């Protein structure tokens, strides 16, 4: 491809500065007090799409945060790529664990990123990766090398379950028609081991509330005589796993896809050092379902994790209280074939059934989505493979990821097209954690690789 | 006793107004941001003691909040009563459950208190009950009916474990010599069933911290592969009780005093309606150790309750995170003969021993104290009995309480004297809960009854 490397070299600093500007806006979709910042981010995305050569760029209202849409249609007979991403970010807390403020981006060199990395919430997930596509688009339009039609759909509610995306997609099926969907919201194995995510897990996220007495009680006067919601909630949560760390919800595993011995052997070839993994997390040992490796546990097996728990007195000092209520946020990662709505129902009825008399239990389904697998023989996967070979000098490894991008399954259902997950982040990016960052090398490699995907996808589609 | 009823009638409104003033000061000892209010409260107590006729009133410095001391020594040959109480209060949260601000006292009539009750944090525990003693003192001095020597010791750290009281008592043994200690920091069975608390439970309060990975992790990428501190903490907490709701800590029950069949039959005579109890708490059923009644579970049996738990994302919306840390505040109520320091050690070593590999566990002992039993044949108990008979027209029922006043055991050890727990509060006072209140009838009955204790204790001591 003509001069993509040079173009990036010439514009490198501007590419970084423009991303830094976007990262300064705290677009936390989970916290309504940040509403204006989220909306401001949508405006910024619109401007950047227009600068990159998109047409008919529009901030599309939804019941929640808007979806930014833009397109460049060259010719109805050419294939069309739909790029999806999100401009909202995870909440940054716990703030005290950040080495620099989450919305004041700084560039620092690290062992993994001697060329520097941008530290900020959203740097990798997903503002940085969305920006790779916008800058690749800019390159292709400004050098007249855009080989096909492009549509951008950048939403603002991915971190809270893409609540309003389904309605939007259904109402805009015409406008969104495409031949392949391209998403960069995942990672690759390492800087010298490119990989394409070919499988993602589904998700069911619920919030539970356990109510005991109708008011907080003195633990001396009532302790031992009434059900303590925290003790009960702990018991209930503990009972959700058996001694092999399998989930005890009846029917939970019924539809779980069991991989063949061959597939598992293939997976096991991905470079992985358990020692390095444990060292990086400062844990003595890993922990999970008996009979599966770490990479299997977080990719092809469903899981249940408590993401938050609270109840009683959590302030400074001591309070001898039996609280009236205790709460937990619980999420389950699902594998292909598990239906998130069915699993949510199974969880709800099981969790309610194990509540002892003396407490009331409420389960509030939060959001979710199904898992997905990309066929390796699809044109999209082949085009992506060739693109990586071009820029990395080696073929990417197909990889199952433990994360969830529920909308991928939604797209297949509503738009009847396959999704290619070209992620340029690294596990060490600390997405969803303090000190999230995105390597400048990764950022630029993404910008360089994407245009080749456009090229090969157009060629292979002929 | 000359004119005590009249004196109360004449000064009733002032007695209420003066208490209301004290209740307005938020003396929350657990939260250091309230420090100045706690100190201001000590000043107020000093002034009130002086007004009541105490001499040598002094705000005695400690490493923490000061202890207010005052005395009235008539004659070295007369018996001496030491009155203990505390001017600090529990934190008021959850604030949204209060019907009126916790530090803006209001008087409302209730079913139990047609004569009105004062609603405010500390109304019953313990400012209101301390004030009964101050007003009784005022009556006796102003009418020249004080029959013996009196010493007041009012501390400001009871709700956080009386951290510095032991040192103070040891350093002031001379000044604190007494023949009996009188405390009103407990309740009675009901307005028409006076009772004296003859047994209290000990306490061991600890805080635990479970650490998994060295940073918060994305629950999709790591879920199922690393130990989740919340899931683990829940499992560990759940394992602290067996299927009979007995505590599983090895050695925990070794020194527990087992009551005789006769004693349990005696206890069972106290009026109690399980139906009313459950209705008042809006629970379908009580919950506790198999083989014991509700009154036994919260009085003569040791317990373990989680008073607070927190970890992960507890804000609005959803965050798919595996937190690095999870925490809980856990307290154990102990019965006579259990040593709180020994129990704390047993908890610590057991809790650390059940932590699975893959997490680190830290147990921080918070505070505690031992249980205590008052001998019914003591002069103090006899004097109290006669005092109640005088004002209530019936003998009080000796009752074991589930609460803890660790300093009672401390007093016996350091000052070699017995404590009489003359409490005028009711279970329905909601101490440690939102909408704490103290009945005006109870308040005035306390003021009326206390001088009779002084009278009979002096007579019986001759």
Automatic annotation (TrEMBL), chains A, B:
InterPro entries: Bact_exopeptidase_dim_dom (IPR036264), Cyt/Met_Dipeptidase (IPR051458), Peptidase_M20 (IPR002933), Peptidase_M20_dimer (IPR011650). Residues 199-358 form the Peptidase M20 dimerisation domain. The keyword Metal-binding applies. Pfam families: M20_dimer, Peptidase_M20. One of its GO terms (biological process) is proteolysis. This is Acetylornithine deacetylase/succinyl-diaminopimelate desuccinylase-like protein. PANTHER family: BETA-ALA-HIS DIPEPTIDASE (PTHR43270), SUCCINYL-DIAMINOPIMELATE DESUCCINYLASE (PTHR43270:SF12). SUPFAM superfamilies: Bacterial exopeptidase dimerisation domain, Zn-dependent exopeptidases. GO terms for molecular function: metal ion binding; peptidase activity. Coiled coil: none annotated. Keywords: Hydrolase, Metal-binding, Protease. Gene3D superfamilies: 3.30.70.360, Zn peptidases (3.40.630.10). The keyword Hydrolase applies.
């Amino acid at each position: 491809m003509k001069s993509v490397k040079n173009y990036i070299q010439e514009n490198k600093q501007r590419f970084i500065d423009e991303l830094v500007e976007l990262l300064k806006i705290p677009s936390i979709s989970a916290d309504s007090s940040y509403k204006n910042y989220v909306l401001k981010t949508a405006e910024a995305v619109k401007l950047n799409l227009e600068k990159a050569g998109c047409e008919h760029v529009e901030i599309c209202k939804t019941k929640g945060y808007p979806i930014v849409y833009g397109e460049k249609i060259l010719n109805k007979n050419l294939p069309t790529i739909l790029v999806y991403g999100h401009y909202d970010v995870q909440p940054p807390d716990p703030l005290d664990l950040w080495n620099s403020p989450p919305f004041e981006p700084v560039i620092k060199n690290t062992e993994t990123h001697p060329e520097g990395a941008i530290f900020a919430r959203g740097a990798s997930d997903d503002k940085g990766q969305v920006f790779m596509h916008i800058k690749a688009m800019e390159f292709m339009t400004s050098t007249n090398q855009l080989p096909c039609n492009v549509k951008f759909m950048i939403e603002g509610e991915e971190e809270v379950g893409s609540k309003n995306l389904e309605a939007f997609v259904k109402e805009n099926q015409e406008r969104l028609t495409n031949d392949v969907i391209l998403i960069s919201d995942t990672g690759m194995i390492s800087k010298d081991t490119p990989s394409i995510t070919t499988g993602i897990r589904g998700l069911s996220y619920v919030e539970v509330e356990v109510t005991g007495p109708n008011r907080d009680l003195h633990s001396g006067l009532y302790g031992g005589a009434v059900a303590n919601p925290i003790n009960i909630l702990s018991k209930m949560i503990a009972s959700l796993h058996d001694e092999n760390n399998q989930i005890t919800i009846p029917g939970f595993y019924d539809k779980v896809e069991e991989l063949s011995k061959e597939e598992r052997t293939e997976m096991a070839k991905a470079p992985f050092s358990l020692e390095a993994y444990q060292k990086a997390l400062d844990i003595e040992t890993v922990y999970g379902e008996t009979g599966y490796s770490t990479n299997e546990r977080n990719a092809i097996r469903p899981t249940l994790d408590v993401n938050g728990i609270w109840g009683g007195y959590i302030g400074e000092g001591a309070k001898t209280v039996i609280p009236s209520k205790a709460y937990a946020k619980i999420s389950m990662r699902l594998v292909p074939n598990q239906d998130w709505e069915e699993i949510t129902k199974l969880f709800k009825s099981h969790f309610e059934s194990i509540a002892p008399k003396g407490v009331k239990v409420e389960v509030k389904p939060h959001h979710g989505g199904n898992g997905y697998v990309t066929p390796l023989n699809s044109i999209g996967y082949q085009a992506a493979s060739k693109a990586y070979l071009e820029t990395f000098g080696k073929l990417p490894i197909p990889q199952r990821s433990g994360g969830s991008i529920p909308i991928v399954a939604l797209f297949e259902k509503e738009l009847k097209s396959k999704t290619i997950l070209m992620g340029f982040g690294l596990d060490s990016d600390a997405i969803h954690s303090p000190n999230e960052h995105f390597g400048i090398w990764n950022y630029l490699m993404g910008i360089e690789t994407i245009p080749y995907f456009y090229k090969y996808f157009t060629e292979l589609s002929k």
